[in-house]
Amino acid sequence: MLTLFQCFTLDSVEAVYRPLITHNPVLLSYFMTVILIMARHARMRISLMNLVTAVMVNSALDQASEDKDVKRAYEAVQKRKQLERLKIMFLELDSDGSGELTLEELRSAPEEVREQLQEVAATEERAKDIEGLFQMLDYDGGGSLDTEEFCEGVLRASTSDKPLELSRLVKQCSDILKLCRAPQPAEASGIGSKEALGISFWRGGG
To answer: Could you tell me if 93 and 131 are in contact, meaning their C-beta atoms sit under 8 angstroms apart?
Structure first.
């Protein structure tokens, strides 16, 4: 029985079957049958193992996809909450109720509100002072911030891995590209469009 088990596991069986086959060649068919049966069972076991592995990998991928969906949903909820918080903060900073936030209003805001704003958006050295933060949020150099510009800039500063100045530069370049692609009247082409482009660069540079 032990010898048969050794043959089934193909554990150094040459020392077993060679002397037997040499003594009785008829046993060759017996050992060949055993080896073929074992090879078939081995293939079945390998196929079953591959199937189990495939199921496990597929389950892991499904779980990872679900985790990503949950993470995206959580981030969306957090973003909405932060937007509401920023809108309330904007109203507190907009002392004259004009819908536009200026640097003077930001400077004259209560210390608590300014600290909250810096806590949310101060991700860079330059954003640690109010004036530097305002300049980075006011990407077009207009001297004031509307609600969308304020919320978008602060939210980007608090969630993006990229520096806020880089995002500002990308948006400036996008606006300049739109200006260049916009159809120009015949009398406004040439020098006029170049002057407009120069003004855009000058405002973007702050």
So the answer is: no
Q: pLDDT digits over 44-83, tens only?
A: 878 888 888 888 998 888 888 888 888 888 877 877 888 8
Domain 94-174 fold is Recoverin; domain 1 (1.10.238)
What is the domain partition of the chain in residue ranges? Answer: 2-61, 94-174
Q: 136, exposed or middle or buried, with CB in 10 Å at 0-12, 13-18, 19+?
A: buried
Q: What is the pLDDT of residues 17-41, one digit of tens each?
A: 778 778 888 877 877 787 777 777 7
pLDDT digits (tens, 9 = 90+) for 146-158: 888 888 877 776 6
Distance CA 121, CA 30 (A): 80
The pLDDT value recorded for residue 98 is 84
DSSP letter (8 states) at residue 108? T
> What is the model's pTM?
0.43
**Can you name the residues that pair with 101 across neighbouring β-strands?**
145
Average pLDDT over residues 177-196: 60
Q: Identify the burial level of 145 via C-beta atoms within 10 angstroms of its C-beta, where 0-12 means exposed, 13-18 middle and 19 or more buried.
A: buried
- SS3 at position 102: strand
| Non-local CB neighbours of 51 within 8 Å, separated by 6+ positions | none
E strands present in the chain: 101-102, 144-145
